[in-house]
Design brief:
alpha+beta, five-stranded mixed sheet, 20 helices, NOL11
């Protein structure tokens, strides 16, 4: 999530529809999906084509699949039947019983109890709500009826299992949360036993009422509710709230001005929700419930006003200094379970030099430049600093904030030292590369492109456009790492031209001349686009850094379409040059440190052609380049086709070599027919 890069993408055929959420099997690390209600698909991360994945057609419609970390997946059918996945795969067409009749499943959940999976689901029929508890391995089913509530009905459910009792929390339309206890040990088989409910929480604060949409349980004392807060004479505002059910208080809340889908997920102490068009992940930490914490009196004396429950900085987009301060505050409180009196006595003993990183950076906000850099270098030298990587990110943010406040200030050597010696990422210091681009610090940008794994595509495009548009005279005066080009570009320092080392190594560079429209003499051919580098080494080194940067084609293509045509042609000519150089080597790799790979070169050529193909076809100056590309690729296709024809013979030769006595010297002539 921090890298913002899709790790995998799979799609069903046109006309097919995924009919329940895809889950991951924790035991086998496989994905499980259902499309068209009955078709089960199972595949692994390395599988590319979903249509070729494992397929099983079931005998009944699937409502949902639940994956349990230690119990494997369980499948809930629309008729109320439940099967574990392994039992289902033994006979996919086995008959599935219908437990419910004319009832619609409104919610379901799965738990582990005594190493046995337990499935709980709620149904509705004619305004009445029922709860079913199933243990598929024990073939046990219990049905309950929820106690009716006048003039209101359940909108959402959540549950947790503890001490062989399922605690079902129901969010009702009267803006209240009710609790229902369901014991798993049943001695009798009563028909539709009525489950009593008790009021757990009223969702109202100071006259404002929360119209809940989603409800998740955090622990036995805390719940999170996503909904719309309606106050008298005010527009409703969507917000995420966390409530203490033990003391019936609002723990913390956050307004969501961009709106949500109404869905909220919770997994491993993280909230997942859509905020506008973005999937937002918010970390939280549940502490032991106490009255002081419930009424907001349990605060860290060093960080006043910072919530100890949730780090809201994910939503606010504030400086990383504040973000890190908030994270450290949460960590301090989660590690300590002291009572309020002992906490106060310990805080009083804290010395000024032991202030948190966030507090130190805030204190240095207005410090002189020499003092700022001195203190930051001392901070970085402390290897025992907790969460050192976040601390380094905060240091870089403090420096970039100073650069924005004072345009004349730019600690180039200090920033370069941090980037070269620390394991940073773009998300830890999002203002660093924009400032380096503004200052035209190409060396720092080159290092960032090579090292940062999560550079946004917009920033990659901005660097590419700048590298292509800057003049050669300016580039020759800049400091750039030439290690990636110096081994295959021989630089003439009188700047009259760029020579290249031609190493054919068994590959004929006069490509497919018999199929070309005109014969190209060797002398003129040596100066063609494929054999003379169209750009200088400084620009080539910067473009190589762009080729190394990670990207997602979906997000990069819209930006590449804005690249001017002359820049596209120049970049394509350089990529074509690299392509020819790679093909001259037997192992299709370029010499040097961090040189582009053949796959990176091909991917970027395809990206540029996809983004500008129509323009390239129309422009007269691009026709020769496209023609050369076409001829070169065609020659390579023919060359590899010929290799494929003799692949069987080569394998037979390899087998014969293994059978021969390696001690015997002989000369043999084998005819390949």
């Amino acid at each position: 999530i921090s890298d913002q890069k899709p790790l995998g993408c799979w799609s069903v055929k046109h006309g097919q529809v995924l009919t329940c959420p895809v889950v991951c099997n924790f035991e086998t690390h496989e994905y499980i999906a259902v499309h068209d209600d009955r078709v089960l698909r199972i595949w692994k991360n390395e599988d590319i084509n979903l249509d070729k994945a494992f397929k099983a057609t079931l005998s009944a419609d699937v409502h949902r699949i639940h994956s349990l970390p230690q119990g494997g997946p369980v499948v809930l059918f629309k008729g109320g039947g439940v099967r574990t996945l392994d039992v289902l795969l033994e006979a996919p067409q086995q008959e599935i019983e219908n437990i419910i009749s004319d009832e619609a499943i409104r919610w379901s959940g799965a738990f582990m109890e005594s190493q046995q999976p337990v499935v709980v689901f709620a149904t509705e029929k004619d305004g009445d709500f029922f709860v079913y508890v199933q243990k598929p391995k024990l073939d046990s089913v219990h049905k309950y009826r929820l106690e009716p509530q006048e003039s209101s009905k359940p909108l959402n459910f959540t549950a947790y299992l503890k001490n062989q009792t399922v605690t079902l929390l129901c969010l009702y339309s009267n803006d209240s949360v009710y609790q229902v206890l369901i014991p798993l040990q049943q001695d009798t088989e009563e028909e539709e036993e009525i489950l009593p409910k008790s009021l757990l929480l009223n969702l109202s604060v100071s006259g404002s009422v929360l119209k809940g949409a989603s409800l998740v349980v955090l622990d036995e004392d805390h719940v999170a509710v996503l909904g719309s807060l309606a106050a008298p004479d005010k527009e409703p505002r969507e917000c995420l709230t966390i409530w203490n059910t033990k003391f019936q208080t609002l723990q913390t809340s956050k307004e969501l001005p961009l709106g949500t889908s109404g869905q909220l997920w919770c997994y491993e102490e993280k909230f997942f929700l859509t905020h506008g068009k973005v999937l937002t992940v918010i970390m939280y930490k549940c502490e032991t419930s106490s009255l002081a914490a419930a009424v907001g009196k349990l605060k860290d004396s060093q960080t006043p006003g910072v919530s100890s429950f949730v780090n809201w900085d994910t939503l606010e987009g504030e400086d990383l200094v504040v973000s890190f301060q908030s994270q450290e505050s949460v960590a301090l409180k989660s590690e300590s379970r002291m009572n309020l009196r002992s906490r106060r006595s310990n805080v009083a003993k804290v010395q000024p030099e032991n202030f948190s990183v966030g507090q130190l950076l805030l204190n240095l906000k207005d410090a002189p430049t020499n003092v700022l850099e001195k203190e930051l270098k001392q901070l970085m030298s402390k290897s025992q600093t907790p969460d050192l990587q976040a601390a380094i990110g905060s240091v870089v943010t403090a420096l970039t904030n100073r650069c924005k406040a004072n345009p004349r200030y730019y600690p180039q050597s200090f920033l370069l030292q941090i980037v070269e010696t620390r394991d940073l990422s773009y998300s830890l210091c999002p203002d660093l590369m924009p400032i380096a681009l503004e200052k035209r610090d190409f060396y720092l940008l080159q290092i960032c492109l090579q090292r940062f794994p999560d550079i946004p595509e917009q920033m990659t495009y901005a660097c590419l456009k700048t590298f292509l548009s800057i003049s050669d005279a300016y580039l020759r005066m800049t400091d750039v790492d030439l290690d990636s080009v110096i081994c295959y570009i021989d630089v003439e320092f009188n700047n009259k031209g760029v020579k290249t080392e031609i190493v054919e190594n068994g590959f004929n560079a006069e490509l497919d001349q018999d199929t070309c429209d005109t014969k190209i003499p060797r002398q003129s051919h040596s100066k063609s686009d494929g054999e003379s580098c169209p750009i200088g080494p400084h620009r080539a080194a910067l473009l190589n850094a762009v080729l190394h940067s990670a990207y997602s084609e979906t997000f990069l293509l819209p930006h590449l379409k804005n690249l001017p045509a002359q820049h596209v042609i120049l970049f394509l000519r350089y990529l074509y040059y690299l392509y020819v150089k790679c093909s001259e080597k037997v192992n299709t790799t370029l010499p040097g440190v961090r040189s582009p790979t053949i796959n990176q070169i091909m991917d970027w050529m395809c990206l540029l052609l996809d983004a500008h193909f129509t323009v390239m076809v129309i422009l007269p100056e691009a026709r020769e380049l496209l023609s050369n590309l076409h001829k070169f690729v065609r020659a390579q296709v023919r060359f590899y086709s010929e290799l494929n024809k003799i692949e069987g013979s080569l394998r037979e030769l390899q087998r014969l070599n293994h059978l021969r006595d390696s001690q015997t010297y002989s000369i043999e002539v084998l005819e390949i027919i």
